[in-house]
Amino acid sequence: MKLVIETFSSWNFRNLDSEPLSFDPTLNLFLGSNGQGKSNFLEALGLLGSLKSFRGASPKKMVRRGESAYRVEAQIQTSSGSSLLRQIVEIGSVVKRQLFLSGAQISVSEYLQLLPVYVLSGEDVKLVRGLPQFRRALLDRIIFFEHHKHLEELNRYQSLLRQRNAALQSGSSAPEMLLWEERLANSAAAIVLLRLQIFEAWRPRFLDLYQRLRGEDFPEIDIEYRWEFSDSEKSLPGLAEKYRERYYRERNRDRRVGYTIDGPHRHDLQLRVGDRPLRDLFSSGQTRIVAAALSLSGLVEVESRRGEYLPVLADDIDAELDEGVLKNMVNFLGKGRQIFLASAHRDTILELFPTALQFEVRKGRADRGVRND
Question: Is residue 310 within 8 Å of 340, Cβ to Cβ?
Answer without folding.
Answer: no
